[in-house]
Amino acid sequence: MTNSAVRMTGVVKRFPGVVANDGVNFEVLKGEVHALLGENGAGKSTLSNILTGLYRPDEGTIELDGTAVTFGSPKAALDAGIGMVHQHFRLVEPFTVAENVILGNPETPFVIDTGSTVDRVAELAKRYDMAVDPNAKIWQLSVGEQQRV
């Protein structure tokens, strides 16, 4: 059994006119915490976006717990336990916490039951010990609270 939680091997990502990642190897062992550091344009965000399913690598492999994986979407990565807290929030400030949460869910139905959505977001906040009011407008929240959303 492997001790790697995440292993990225030989990851290459090209965009027109630029190679963002060129044969990147990255490994995190179980129980470790890492920081991915580098200059602007070094490829950190691209590598993170590959790991979280936003981009697909042109070459290379990703393994979780020793098993090769391919993420076709951010939801697939989330389902596998991989997510990312973005440096720049992608929230709609005039909307409520609950409205922003359902905007980020690709399985949200066309017609939304606002009451049950607020209840569900409150339940999730309680489960993960995040004190946030589902009815609060994003612009009313502190930066830390916005990050939790």
Question: How would you describe the overall organization of this protein?
Answer:
This protein is of the alpha+beta class and 149 residues long. The chain has helices at residues 44-51, 74-79, 97-103, 114-127, 143-148; strands spanning 4-15, 18-29, 59-64, 67-69. It has two domains: 4-79, P-loop containing nucleotide triphosphate hydrolases (Rossmann fold, 3-Layer(aba) Sandwich), CATH 3.40.50; 97-148, no CATH class. It has five helices and four strands; from the N terminus they run E-E-H-E-E-H-H-H-H. Strands 2-1-3-4 form a four-stranded antiparallel beta sheet, covered by helices on one side. Helix 3 packs across helix 4 (114-127).
Helix content: 25-40%
Order of helices and strands: EEHEEHHHH
What is the CATH third-level topology name of the largest domain?
Rossmann fold
Mean model confidence by pLDDT: 87
* Beta-strand content: 15-25%
- The tally of beta strands, per DSSP, is 4
Number of separate structural domains: 2
CATH superfamily of the largest domain: P-loop containing nucleotide triphosphate hydrolases
Question: What general outline do the C-alpha atoms trace?
Answer: elongated
CATH C-level class of the largest domain: Alpha Beta
Quick one: biggest sheet?
4 strands, antiparallel
Return Rg in Å: 18 Å
Query: How are the strands ordered across the major sheet?
Result: 2-1-3-4
The appropriate CATH architecture of the largest domain is 3-Layer(aba) Sandwich
* Class by SSE composition: alpha+beta
Measured distance between first and last alpha carbons? 36 Å
Low-confidence stretches: none
The count of helical stretches stands at 5
